[in-house]
Write a structure and sequence with these properties.
The complex is a heterodimer of chains A (273) and B (422).
Chain A lengths: L1 H24 L2 H29 L7 H23 L5 H18 L13 H36 L3 H6 L3 H34 L7 H23 L4 H24 L5 H4 L2
Chain B lengths: L2 E8 L5 H7 L3 H13 L5 E6 L3 E8 L2 H16 L3 H4 L4 E4 L1 H11 L11 H15 L5 H20 L9 H12 L8 E5 L2 H12 L5 E4 L3 H10 L3 E3 L4 H5 L4 E5 L9 H10 L5 E5 L16 E5 H39 L2 H26 L5 H27 L7 H11 L5
Parallel strand pairs in B: 5-6, 5-8, 6-7, 8-9, 9-10
Antiparallel strand pairs in B: 1-3, 1-4, 2-3
Classes of the chains: A mainly alpha (273), B alpha/beta (422).
């Protein structure tokens, strides 16, 4: 199955190259090539994960490598969905390389699969993992859109248009799709947290156990809740929303990586190298 | 051998006073074309006249005479001594003339690089020539190639991309701030040609309500009527800012009309929905510091000019790509034109016939292996004689020097009849 995973990596890397070519050359065919390579990569990646699932009886999330692989998969899938819905070509320049980097890192980190553990065989856990990862992917895209927004806003405000003005979409479009990403991410994260609570109850007999990952997930959740509230009631949009999306993502990254290395808790085994 | 010649002057070689004297109105152009067609040394002719150029494109067997006759005609028709404009005239022949026509049609020679009107003007000049039957095989072919090349340049390079006028630059910016201009509300403060043009562009992009503010309410009412908009009083501007999206300002005011402090309050009331100020006035109407506020954007006339200059620079880069397309097209045209010569056409025709005859002969011989060698030679000789007889008359006709036949037309026809250009 290693060769399948290498095919996935190759497709993501080529897709990233296609999107970069699109950024510079602005030829529609590069965009199309980038998109289809990513899509094929995503399909093969799905097969690879399902294969791992069928072998172990649960989602392959034993170590940091496997977790990163799932993260790359979620980003590729969610971006493909967004591309179809909003035709957000330029975001591919951000999403495809991220998927590529995540899977390459996964390949470098991969170790022998741990023996199947009874604790992992639960539907609650399955939903917990899938929703949390898709939610994180949505926040990742929101961060990318935030960066794109800041770049485009800068070109317009500084009045020297140059390279990006033509290539990036309109501010209002970036802002509204970024908002859509945050809404989707927040919804999925909420569901992810709840399924996590239920799973914790079934395994450890309590919903909440002050595990550092739980705590930081809670903080992330509150931050995005604040962002959505600010937008709805105070009109936080444009630049402010873009910066918030980027800050939210940094906190999210700490929850994803930092907690594993700096703190200990019951999420540890899933995300250790 | 006929030659293609182009004589003309344009905005680079002649000042506007001179161009005015030479330019032909539409009616004039038709009359002038009829006169030109009457000049015996001009076999084919076409006349292009726009505000920036006057050009005569002609085909002649005696190009030097044709050039003199045409110059004399221009002087006579416009009642202007030749010395006054001879220095402004450029004359191109052969490949240079062809390349020039391609460049003009592709808008590489235009005053505003890449402006799209010129192609339409050439099309209509060509139509006038075809209706007057002054164009022939060469010009027909050349013009059709020209339209093809111009289309290719437009689709394969960014020569026509990005706005190069103030009002269009403003629209383009608007579309990078708001995704679509549809239903965006517009406030016009003051009046002026450029500002009104911008409003018209916005309306064409399906903008929403138009508000018009003017110091003299009367004038505002009249202007509002023009755009089907709503007049407001000058004091109502700040209130209106709360629900419009685009403000175009062009007043004679010596001081700012809208200030940062005011907009800061307005932005809160608008819940930060974006506001785009286009300040066409000199001195400026809109405090430039407003650009520092989040979700508020201010472009004044110099900013817009800067954008245009940047876009023109892009177009110049694209023009280099266009030149390559044109060079290639000139070579292709020359190939066609050289083939239009008598000898290559006869050779090609004979070659084609011999290929067909040879192939058929061989096929037949395969089935007739039992025939003695002498019979076979006789058959081959018979085939050759037939070919020579068939070729005799066309060869004579194509080679004849009679002035009554239009040789290019015959050559072109022959090439097409026997598909010799494949």
């Amino acid at each position: 199955m290693d060769s399948l995973f290498f095919a996935v990596i190759a497709l993501y890397v080529l897709s990233a190259a296609g999107y970069l070519a699109f950024l510079f050359r602005q030829k529609e065919r590069f965009n199309r090539v980038g998109f289809y390579l990513l899509l094929i990569g995503f399909v093969l990646h799905t097969i690879f994960i399902l294969y791992g699932f069928s072998v172990a009886g649960h989602l392959p999330v034993h170590n940091l490598g496997e977790t990163l692989s799932i993260a790359g998969w979620a980003i590729a899938g969610l971006f493909a969905l967004f591309q179809v819905k909003y035709n957000l070509k330029i975001l591919g320049v951000y999403a495809a390389p991220l998927s590529a980097v995540a899977t390459v890192a996964a390949a470098l980190l991969s170790t022998e699969p741990v023996q199947a553990d009874k604790i992992l065989e639960s539907y609650w856990l399955f939903f917990h993992i899938v929703t949390v990862f898709l939610g994180d992917a949505a926040f990742t895209l929101a961060c990318g859109l935030g960066i794109i927004y800041l770049v485009q806003e800068r070109t317009i405000k500084n009045k020297t248009h140059g390279f990006f003005f033509k290539r990036l979409p309109s501010l209002e479009f970036i802002d509204s799709t970024g908002y859509a990403c945050v809404v989707i991410g927040f919804t999925l994260l909420t569901i992810g947290l709840f399924t996590g609570f239920i799973y914790a109850k079934t395994v450890w007999g309590r919903f909440w156990s002050w595990d550092p990952k739980e705590v930081w997930s809670g903080i992330t959740w509150l931050l995005y809740a604040a962002l959505l509230h600010g937008r709805a009631s105070l009109g936080w949009r444009g630049r402010k929303a873009a910066i918030m999306a980027i800050i939210g993502f940094i906190v999210l990254m700490f929850t994803f990586f930092g907690v594993n290395f700096l703190l200990t808790g019951h999420h540890g085994p899933f995300t250790k190298i | 051998m006929q030659d293609i010649v182009l004589i003309g002057l344009n905005h680079n070689t002649a000042p506007v006073e001179l161009r005015e004297c030479i330019a032909f109105s539409e009616g004039d152009a038709r009359a002038a074309l009829a006169h030109l067609a009457d000049i015996p040394v001009l076999d084919e002719v076409m006349l292009l006249s726009t505000c920036n150029r006057v050009e005569v494109l002609l085909v002649s067997k005696k190009p030097d005479d044709a050039i003199q006759e045409t110059k004399r005609f221009l002087s006579r028709f416009n009642d202007l001594p030749l010395e006054r404009f001879d220095a402004s005239l450029y004359v191109f022949r052969g490949d240079e003339a062809v390349g020039h026509v391609f460049r003009v049609a592709s808008s590489l020679d235009s005053m505003v690089l890449g402006e799209p009107q010129i192609l339409g003007q050439i099309k209509s000049a060509y139509q006038t020539a075809t209706l007057a039957k002054t164009s022939g095989v060469l010009l027909n072919r050349l013009l059709h190639r020209t339209f093809f090349v111009a289309k290719r340049v437009r689709s394969e390079t960014g020569i026509g991309g990005n706005a190069v006028s103030i009002s269009y630059a403003a629209i383009e910016l608007g579309r990078k701030i708001f995704d679509s201009l549809k239903d965006k509300k517009v406030l016009l403060v003051g009046a002026g040609e450029m500002a009104e043009l911008a409003v018209e562009h916005l309306i064409r992009h399906k903008a929403g309500d138009i508000y018009v503010a003017n110091r003299t309410f009367e004038r505002g009412v009249n202007l509002a009527k023009k755009f089907n908009g709503r007049p407001i009083r000058f004091e109502e501007i700040l209130d209106t800012l709360r629900h419009v999206d685009i403000i175009i300002s062009s007043t004679g005011s010596a001081d700012f009309i809208i200030r940062k402090k005011q907009v800061k309050v307005v932005m809160k009331q608008r819940r930060n929905s974006p506001l785009f100020f286009i300040d066409i006035a000199v001195p400026r109407d809109i405090d430039p510091d407003i650009n520092r506020l989040n979700n508020a954007y201010v472009y004044d006339i110099d900013d817009l000019k800067g954008v245009i200059e940047e876009n023109l620079e892009d177009r110049r880069k694209e023009a280099a790509k266009a030149e390559r397309i044109i060079d290639e097209a000139v070579i292709r045209f020359r190939e066609w034109y050289e083939n239009l010569n008598v000898i290559p056409t006869i050779v090609a025709l004979r070659g084609k016939m011999e290929t067909i005859a040879g192939a058929e002969l061989e096929k037949t011989m395969q089935a007739l292996r039992h025939l003695p060698e002498t019979d076979r030679v006789a058959m081959a000789r018979m085939m050759q004689a037939t070919l020579n007889k068939i070729m005799h008359n066309p060869t004579q006709l194509l080679k004849s020097d009679s002035p009554h036949i239009n040789k290019s037309a015959y050559l072109d026809f022959t090439r097409r009849l026997f598909k010799l250009d494949e």
